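Hey L., structure's done. Input below.
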Amino acid sequence: MRQGTRLLLTGFLWVVFAVRGGFLLAQETQRLGDGNDGNRSPYAHWIDLLDEKGVKIRATDKNPQPFSTRKTCGECHDYETISKGWHFATAAPSDPAGRPAQPWVLRDSRTRTQIPISSRGWKGTFTPEQLGLSSMDLLNLIGSHIPGGGYGEMEADPKDPQQMVRRQISGNFEINCMTCHNGDPRQDSNMAALQATRQNYRWVAAASSGLAVVNGTASALSDFFDPEFDEGIKTTYNDGIFNKEGQVFLDITSRCPPTRCYFCHSSQDLNISESEEWTRDEDVHLSAGLICADCHRHGKDHRISRGFQKDDSARASLTCEGCHLRDAAAAVPENGRLGAPRPAHWGIPTIHFEKLTCTACHSGTWPKEQVGQWRTSRIHKIGLHGKHSLDLRQPHVYGPVFLKGEDGKIGPYRLFWPAYWGVIKEDRVAPLHPTMVLKSAAAILDQNQEKENDWLSLTEEQIAAVLKRLSSEETEAVYIAGGRMYRQSENGLKSCLHPAAEPYAWAMAHDVRVGEQSLGARSCDDCHTTNSPFFFGTVMADSPVSGQSRFVEMVQLQGIRRLYIWFFNFSFLFRPWMKAISLAACGLAALVVLTYVLKAVAVLSRRALEDKT
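Output:
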């Protein structure tokens, strides 16, 4: 009996020690993987590839599975913490919305729709839930230009069996760590986009990493496809990538090269033909040898610093002012970070720094009389090559447009004008998904197939007919386009300005120009003339409604009275005269003072002589 008790106690202690040892080992692994002990040499990533069940993938596997970043990278790195990063997370109620940024866009040419979408609740955007978009719907819309996570790992709605089946076939779109951190030149973002387009979410990381070839299309597979037993999508790992221990080398870098960022963060100036793209200059910081990650840094949480954030000293030090205008008289000099020069700004009144952002003068293309059009990677899907390349022209994105931000400072923005059908409730407009509109009014909308400025044209008669179909006794339907809201009245179709029809705008910071090419470098006339594009440049409010496109002046969007700024700028014509007159007046005053001083000296001298005598 005593021997049995002793054996039982010994076994219990062994279990305790094993659990404790495993816990300490896990802690140590976590520390080594995610911590920073101060050594700046890179860690050589000879690692096991694990599938989504945590099973090690070997070169001898007959039907190898794609590797899972959650399991493979998550062996050492805190995947859950990383998943809360800005690039991956859907907005939680506790997360700050931050400054409005570039949205996703739900577009549909038949219904003349372009709706800005964001889960962050930015003014002028709508959440996927408001539009009735499931996670799969959203991935079909944006999957080509996201690094996974967020909606890609959201559980399917159990009330939608079809969605659950398709998610089981496609798998989860896990965070593709390779998108940014793979230093191998074979890393292919275009391939990742192709896999996402095919709904091959489980295979994105493997196919784009340069380690494997993936064949098959999940979206074409039957609802009865079983990934456990049926052959539908095949993963073939390249010869020679596994060593004798079954490990694979990954060229992982923490300093992600700009080429990784460019796939999702490029923009194309449509004022420059494709044959002249080589003439565009790169951002001055990149030309000087910096990379995006030098300013856009982050910790374990992957909440990347953005150039306007000043919520703590570390992030504030990575803003424009943080590098270029820090306190040079501090105990430890703060300016000159990363070799940044301290600008003198000679002759520029300090009010400019109170009213303008740094980017107003230094970023983007030079302002023109008519604001030009742009295409961006995320909105227009540029960067896709081969058979799945696209040539999207809508929505028409305009920039740079100089607007007032939430901080009251004027800076450069890009914008587009939303267009959608919706219902109005308490003066708020709720958009309708294009499929809902087509169910009721497809025949009316398809009547006119003529194009006008890339839009399928829309007549006021069509709008009135569609609104009649969409309205009911309880709800009033409206149409938003070109900065105006169209609604039915007793006297027929009416249009008016409405907050819901205002353009959606987001700040732009790049490409930054050198100081000699900034606004004001030549003279005040760069901005302060009676026809200056900075104030009087025009932005097209484009609309599918026939004959309703119009031009809006910058001052109107800035909320500045046109007459006031015109007279203010007009005064600059006389400022050289004012300077000359002022200098002459000062000289004359100095001469008068000098005359009286000399007279006083003469009088005092005579008195002094008289006193001596």
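The CA atoms of residues 153 and 446 lie 37 Å apart. Residues 42-88+147-250 form one domain.

-- N.
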